[in-house]
Amino acid sequence: MSGPDEPESAVGADAFTRAGAGLEVAVVGAGAIGATAAYDLSRGGADVTLYDRDDVASDASGRAAGICYDAFADGLDAEIASDAIERFRALSGDDTFPFVECPYVWLARDGDADGADAIRQQVRRMQDHEIVAFEMDGETLADRFSSLRTDDVDVAGIAGAAGYTDPAQYTACLAAAATGAGATLETDTPVEVRTDPARVIHPDGTTREVDAVLVAAGARTGDLLDDAGIPLAVKPYRVQALVAAGDLAEPMCYDATGDFYLRPHAGGILAGDGVEHREADPDTYDRAADPTFADDLLERVTHRVPALERTDDDGLERAWAGLCTATPDRDPLVGRVADGLYVATGFQGHGFMRAPAIGERIAEEILGGSGIDAFDPLRFDGDEAFEIVEGMALDRE
Ligand SMILES: Cc1cc2nc3c(=O)[nH]c(=O)nc-3n(C[C@H](O)[C@H](O)[C@H](O)COP(=O)(O)OP(=O)(O)OC[C@H]3O[C@@H](n4cnc5c(N)ncnc54)[C@H](O)[C@@H]3O)c2cc1C
């Protein structure tokens, strides 16, 4: 697979005019965030080593559903997500990774008044931020998407700048592009990080001092930072997804009342839910789906998309679990935590869709630009007690 051939003018190229020449940077974690950041840092002239304890996309980014949209009500979130969608569009192609345009619908059912109010408010706020989003009732939704059952829908939001991709392919492509731009990829290399001075410790005990370390180690970021003496307010939590046979062209849909999502997939449909509201251990969590997960979820999915009704039990292709990361305010932790030490984690199940923009912004910060103030990891002490709330969940009054 080749890397993307990104035009210099495509995304923030000005920030990358070799600003990092001579800067030595270690990126820990070759998921979507680390691979993107490694690509942008390398394009900026930095001497980058991209480490992974296992392989490229071997953790959350290889397990994600690949749903991408810019339907965020908050202005900053909307801006970042819009940039990410633009970049998915710019980088995707036959030689890189697919990006399939597909509208995103999220809905509340009759009787879920709080959910319906939350969706109405979200759509208004999105429109304020120039996000292409509309409100529809069940009847209008039925006219637009005949595949969806709509007789129980009170209100739905529809966002146009949305689509899906193969997250593992995106990540592999960006990691390849990073090496193409000069980065060194070290797989099967679990490193530790230390600060003052910023450095990584290799599995054989050797230490490498660098100008900057970016820890984008997904669910393991908190533990890695803890070992470096920097507590982070982040908790890993387990979620599940499946692929089943079926025929669905569009839309992607999040049923906020039923608390599940689905999207078209080459093998049929991809659907997910099953968030566990307790902290998971990255070393010991169960990577297989729970025994009852598929049956429970497929019952709810076929309620929403009746044509997916299974005639036998063979429809399930695969089901799995992976880890997401939660923070006290549901905003990510992205930026500097100590001299030469940076993190990017806490994406609440929305890390893949934001990776093209977050990777770019954290690279910019490491190369001397400004960070994202609202995502400053040091806004928390790191010892906060907080509940794990699923990322797609509506803010209900
Ligand atoms: C089932 C499921 C469905 C999801 N669906 C979506 C979706 O549709 N859209 C969306 O936006 N998000 C989705 N997510 C969330 C998304 O997967 C994550 O937010 C995103 O992939 C995080 O990327 P990352 O690069 O931060 O972490 P990861 O992809 O987890 O990458 C971290 C990497 O760091 C490596 N690593 C860890 N420790 C070390 C170490 N000590 N040394 C070296 N390397 C190390 C790991 O091996 C791993 O490869 C989903 C997640 C799951 C589990």
UniProtKB/TrEMBL annotation:
Gene3D superfamilies: D-Amino Acid Oxidase, subunit A, domain 2 (3.30.9.10), FAD/NAD(P)-binding domain (3.50.50.60). GO terms for molecular function: oxidoreductase activity. Coiled coil: none annotated. This is FAD-binding oxidoreductase. Residues 25-364 form the FAD dependent oxidoreductase domain. It comes from Natrinema longum. Keywords: Oxidoreductase. The keyword Oxidoreductase applies. InterPro entries: D-isomer_DH_CS1 (IPR029752), FAD-dep_OxRdtase (IPR006076), FAD/NAD-bd_sf (IPR036188). The keyword Zinc does not apply. The lineage of its organism: Archaea, Methanobacteriati, Methanobacteriota, Stenosarchaea group, Halobacteria. It comes from the Archaea. GO terms for cellular component: cytoplasm.
